[in-house]
Write a structure and sequence with these properties.
Layout lengths: L6 H28 L5 H22 L7 H25 L5 H8 L2 H11 L8 H18 L12 H23 L6 H22 L13 H26 L4 H4 L2 H15 L7 H21 L4 H7 L12
Helix pairs in contact: 1-4, 1-9, 1-11, 2-8, 2-9, 3-7, 3-8, 4-11, 5-7, 6-12, 11-12
Length: about 325
């Protein structure tokens, strides 16, 4: 209970929450600046390889065992769903989409977690409040994207919106896989392995899709370089370390509240710093979607293992899915 915590521990919890709320919410804007002059898959691959190697070294120094061959293979599968399909889609989409809108679209992760947990073998049907949250969330996405036209009133191409929705689905699949597969017991080592494996896959995807052709490192802007450095250090290392610590000291439902705080931060930062449009339709849709995510997250938070699945939705990259 919070009243039983020592003042120093309460301060640490507050600092950790401030970190994951602000840092993870800001990664969407950082990605937008990074992909302005750096191809998305090469950028993300480099980011995760570097941060993964640093986290691996730190974990080994703290006494974590080296992953087995089987665990490295499983880390590659998890990294494919979480980082290649998840984060890779965000980087690709933010070449043409505002960072705040991308954050709102991928915030539907808890929807997919509920649905997968429902339809899988021996799955559990959601509670009435969770069903209400699903319906509310679908309506919010409809308001945001406005699929009645070729392009929504916010300039959202339905194809791009669909890719981001599928990215959240892949992140949910990867989250379940990461929970059940044979992976290192240490959360830090597990994430390090997934970062390294996923980063290599992302970099390979960038090469295969021709991102190296015509890429001139001398044309990379200072803003892009600073954004990559920020994503690598603050987004992946500091943010995830704070989250892992927090998940061990508060309830999973409380730790999972980042899922509906980060989009708010992303929308505000995109508007205040990058001059992204903030229309009445966006504000209304944001309120609906975030309310739905909050309803699902907190309703499932009383269910023990269900809440753990929401909380571990960021196990692969240390950010709110999937920036």
């Amino acid at each position: 209970m919070a009243t039983q915590l020592k003042p120093a521990r309460r301060l640490h919890i507050l600092i950790a929450f401030a970190c994951i709320y602000s840092v993870w919410g800001s990664t969407y804007l950082a990605i937008r600046y990074a992909v302005a002059t750096i191809p998305p898959f090469l950028m993300l691959g480099t980011r995760f390889i570097v941060s993964g190697i640093m986290l691996y070294g730190w974990s080994r120094m703290r006494g974590s065992a080296n992953p087995t061959g089987r665990q490295w293979r499983n880390a590659g599968v998890a990294g494919f769903f979480l980082l290649v399909c998840g984060n890779g889609a965000v980087g690709w989409a933010e070449q043409t989409m505002a960072s705040g809108l991308a954050a709102l679209l991928v915030s539907v992760l808890p929807f997919w977690l509920v649905i997968i947990d429902w339809v899988r073998p021996r799955g559990r049907p959601p509670k009435p409040l969770v069903i209400a949250g699903l319906i509310l969330g679908v309506f919010g996405i409809f308001v945001l994207v406005n699929p009645t036209g070729a392009t929504g009133s916010n300039g959202i191409a339905p194809l791009t919106a669909g890719v981001l929705m599928l990215a959240s689905l892949c992140w949910a699949i990867g989250s379940f896989y990461s929970r059940d597969a044979d992976l290192p017991s240490s959360g830090l080592m597990r994430t390090a392995a997934e970062m390294v494996a996923g980063g290599i896959l992302l970099y390979t995807l960038g090469v295969v899709t021709g991102e190296l052709r015509g890429f001139d490192i001398h044309r990379v802007s200072r803003a892009s370089l600073l954004a990559v450095a920020y994503l690598t250090t603050f987004g992946s290392l500091l943010g995830f370390t704070a989250y892992i610590w927090l998940f061990d000291h508060v309830s999973p439902a409380l730790a999972g509240t980042y899922a509906f705080v980060n989009p708010v931060v992303a929308v505000i930062l995109g508007w205040a710093i990058a001059g992204e449009a903030l229309t009445a339709r966006t504000l209304i849709a944001a309120a609906i979607v975030i309310g739905a995510v909050a309803l699902i997250t907190l309703s499932r938070g009383t269910g023990g293992r269900e809440a753990e699945e929401v909380g571990r939705g960021t196990a692969g990259s240390g950010e709110a899915e999937p920036a």
